[in-house]
Amino acid sequence: MQNFTDQFLQYWAQFSAELNIPKNQSESLFSILSFSYSQNYYHTHQHIIECLELFHQIKDRLEDPIAIELAIWFHDVVYNPQASDNEEQSAKLMQKHCVGILKKEKLEKVAQWIIATKKHQPSKDHDLNYLLDIDLAILGSSPQRFAEYEQQIQQEYSWVEPEMYKIKRAEVLKHFYQMKPLYQTEYFRDLLEEHAKRNLSLIG
């Protein structure tokens, strides 16, 4: 697999400079993020970079791009495939280690956005809908990247008995296939909806 470490560092350096995060805190946060995203198969540096690439395409459409970018950095920082509270734990970790970066009420908003990536329910919050769409953009990726993604998810759940995994994974993808629309923003519907439905229709 391609090494995404350098890109991950470059994006973090850019974000840290934009927020003027103190050097020691920035280095500590980067260590946490880099280590956490090196422990998985899909929820990795690659996933965060892909999210950030999409974020930079649409940041001018956002009301609070800084908060959205912070949510992207931390939304999967805690990921244990055998746990059911990863998003909540990711939000708590973000709030604990990002004190002083943004005001307390803004960190609370980011925490709620991170938790919202658990269920991907449509929101009345303009920015949150963009975050949710970015997180699901992988479903509308190229057939090659989607196949790689499916392999990565299967590796993360290698502890599940194969037949049971196949049944449960099909249920998850069927849920996304049946969402109308899958993407909540016009931008991502136009960009990815058709590709995503085609990818999802091939899984059974």
From TrEMBL:
InterPro entries: HD_phosphohydro. The keyword Ion transport does not apply. It comes from the Bacteria. Keywords: Hydrolase. GO terms for molecular function: hydrolase activity. This is Metal-dependent hydrolase.
